[in-house]
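Human: I wish I could look at a protein chain and see how it folds. This is the protein in question:
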Amino acid sequence: MTALIAAWLAHLLAAASPGPAILLAARTGVTQGFRTGFWLCLGLAIGALVWAMAALFGLAALFRIAPTLLWAFKLAGAGFLIWIAVQMWRHARDPLELPAAGIAVPQSADAAFRLGLFAQLANPKPAIFFGAVFVAAVPPGTAPLLVTALLAGVFANELICTLAVARAFSLAAPRRAYQRFKTVIDRAFGGALAALGAKLATT
């Protein structure tokens, strides 16, 4: 139980640290509001859960055995993150009418969910993280109930951390600041995502 709690805390720190999930949650919250941000964050959380389950079933070990497969996953994931970054950069100067309270936002819930899910699955590093942590924290023969509780904790960590960011950035003051400095902020977000994509491809 102590090891499982340690694994949960390690993932909580990882989920709260800056990365593609946090950046996308912040930008979605500020541009499209909390409702759309919720669906993006749900996709991010399910993506993290998929990687955690994959690690439990040995995907991280497979990556160690077949590094070419990991390399291919990294390149594909890096390409996806850089593509998102390029779109942000290209459209940074486009005017944006931020939605008022109660008015539908331009991006659908389905689209936001898919973006969150695909962005999370595009980064194979969580599989390596979960693999390393679970090797120490989940010994063979661990009760299924405890494994389920750990997976539920991973899902909750990811959802709560990204939702907190999306909510904070959906408030009036951050949204007004975004509207005023949209070009600079979008290019900063795009540059950060591109840098993360490049780091993913080269590490």
Q: What stands out?
A: The first helix runs from residue 2 to 16. The two ends are 33 Å apart (CA to CA). Confidence is low (pLDDT under 50) at residues 99-105.
